[in-house]
Amino acid sequence: MQSIASHKLKIYNSLSGKKESFSPISKDYVGMYVCGPTVYSNVHLGNLRTFTSFDIIFRYLSHIGYKVRYVRNITDVGHLENDEDHGEDRISKKARIENLEPMEVVQKYTYDFHGTTRKFNLLPPSIEPTATGHIIEQIKLIEKLIKKDIAYEVNGSVYFDVIKYNKLNDYGILSKRKIEDLIHNTRALDGQSDKKNPQDFALWKKAEPKHIMKWESPWSDGFPGWHLECTAMSNKYLGEKFDIHGGGMDLKFPHHECEIAQSNACFGTNASNYWMHANMLTLNGQKMSKSTGNNILPEEIFSSVSPFLSKTFSGSSVKFFMLQAHYRSVLDLSNDALVASEKGFNKIIDAINILECHKNFSKQTDFDIKKWANSCYTALDDDFNTPILIANIFEVVKFINKVNIGKAELSKEGCTELSQLINSFVFDIMGLQKNEISLNQNEKLDKVMNIILELRNDARANKDYSLSDKIRDLLKENGISINDNDKDSSYTID
Ligand code: AMP
Ligand code: ZN
Q: Which among 256, 273, 241, 251 is positioned nearest to 20, based on CA atoms?
């Protein structure tokens, strides 16, 4: 049983650009908000990398004793094309193309997202609010911002005045962008926009007559801006200031920068003490992305239909591949890297199986289990460093393999302690699963089956058909079919 006090957890804070000691607002409690998916298409492995990173963070904080309220939203309105304030709503566009109601699109892809998170063994968040379920909260925030004279209405739309905000605050505090550069680099919108300045962002957009996803508001029938939803939902469930706000690196600007501005203008805080960003998964050196098509979908790794992959992979092998890189590093996915990770993961599972079956105990253990466990925890306490944790796990795998061939000693108590620790690192904290048969086990099964088939062939050659049929029937009862042909027999697992 772990205690919070025995861990000196450090978290890299994108706001300060440094690793900082973690100290939550309320002792023993953590409030964490993570931007969830925009449900207009299937999540790809890049999205999954970000959600996996925060799943490990959620699991580890809970493991060391924190009571965590983890809020991860569903974006079902307001996220326009190109992350900008003009263009079509991503969900409306998909509804138009697929000839569906927008809410049918939302339902379809939310369902897909949940299925994927289950297949990859990600824990559900404590609360999963939707943007469309919090329109009233968003309207209230806009009223507050107008009252504070930091937002203005033009033709039924409401915008946040970035230039005015920046006079008293630092717009760019998170992304380290300078407002002068932004002004210089933002192209004018050729009269398309009612904004005072191109940097201003929409809080409420008046809907075109044909637009389906719209709600009544004091300004127009319209819809809320993307950045506003996260401020409204994080505020509702975690308060004006909470502990951790997370998302992918690509959300730092403009999404999170705008969230900070809204929160500062409304409540006088940066919303969260620790802003955390998971880095991108790339494919062929390019960011995996829904809109460009440079991506692999989870289903494609299970069915191997992706042109990028030579075979199928399990969810845990893919997750293990992701966890071999630190969450703040860019990671490039390739078939070879997945194959190598799968082999590594199987080695770990084989070692866990060896420990489970080990009987040949010694009086002592030739391995400092406590020191090893400490170094695993030190890695995790250092900004959730899973690659170092995995390197440590490979060290203990070497020891377990030595024990297996009688070249190292392991006591009964040592075996129990090691089993518990390795299980908690691999299954509880990294959320990997053993359900797949490892390569090694597969090979062993193959060898055993060949022996059985040979014995059965002998029985048939001796005309002992009752024995050969018995073998066939017993195997069938246990899910293995024997296929006889003229010369040979083979088997298939049903
Ligand atoms: P979206 O559905 O586009 O709003 O993205 C959902 C989450 O996935 C956000 O936190 C994004 O930052 C993250 N994300 C998008 N693309 C990638 C990628 N290639 N690698 C890692 N995370 C990503
Ligand atoms: Zn968000």
A: 273
| Secondary structure (DSSP) of 338-350 | HHHHHHHHHHHHH
Q: What are 392-444's pLDDT values in tens digits?
A: 999 999 999 999 999 999 999 999 999 999 999 999 999 999 865 555 566 67
Q: Does the CB atom of residue 35 touch ligand 1 within 6 A?
A: yes
How many other C-beta atoms can be found within 10 angstroms of the C-beta atom of residue 44?
Answer: 22
Question: Does the Cβ of 91 fall within 6 Å of ligand 1?
Answer: no
What pLDDT does 87 receive? 74
Q: Which residues of 168-200 are buried (b: 16+ CB within 10 A; e: fewer)?
A: ebbbbebbebebeebeeeeeeeeeebbbebbbb
296 lines ligand 1 (CB under 6 A): no
- Which class for 158: exposed (0-12), middle (13-18), buried (19 or more C-beta within 10 A)? buried
Cα–Cα distance between 419 and 195 in angstroms, integer? Answer: 61
Does the predicted TM-score (pTM) go above 0.90?
no
Instruction: Render 398-451 in DSSP notation, one character per residue.
Output: HHHHHHHTTSS--BHHHHHHHHHHHHIIIIIIS-----SPPHHHHHHHHHHHHH
Residue pLDDT, tens place only, 112-133: 999 999 999 999 999 999 999 9
Ligand 1 center–CA 463 separation, angstroms: 64
Residue-wise pLDDT for 76-125, tens only, equals 987 777 666 777 788 888 888 888 888 999 999 999 999 999 999 999 99
Same fold, 4-278 and 282-429: no
295 in contact with ligand 1, CB cutoff 6 A: no
Ligand with the closest atom to the CA of 234: 2
CATH class of 4-278: alpha beta
Tell me if residue 394 falls in helix, strand or coil: helix
CATH number corresponding to 282-429: 1.10.730
> Can you give the residue ranges of every domain in the chain?
4-278, 282-429, 436-493
Answer yes or no: are the C-beta atoms of 129 and 251 closer than 8 Å: no
Distance CA 227, CA 229 (A): 6
Instruction: Give the number of the atom of ligand 1 that is nearest the alpha carbon of residue 248.
Output: 12
- What ligand is nearest to the CA atom of residue 112? 1
**Partner residues linked to 80 by β-bridges:** 89
Locus of tokens 């409420």: 204
| Candidate from 34, 47, 321 with most ligand 1 atoms within 8 A of CB, to mutate | 47
Q: Whose CA is nearest to atom 6 of ligand 1?
A: 37
Q: Kind and range of the H or E element at 119?
A: helix 102-119
Query: Does residue 190 register a pLDDT over 80?
Result: no
**Would you say the CB of residue 41 lies under 6 angstroms from ligand 1?**
no
Q: Which ligand is nearest to the CA of 327?
A: 1
Q: Is the beta carbon of 46 within 6 A of some atom in ligand 1?
A: yes
pLDDT for position 191: 46
Spatial contact of 386 and 324, defined as CB atoms under 8 Å apart = yes
pLDDT at 188 over 70: no
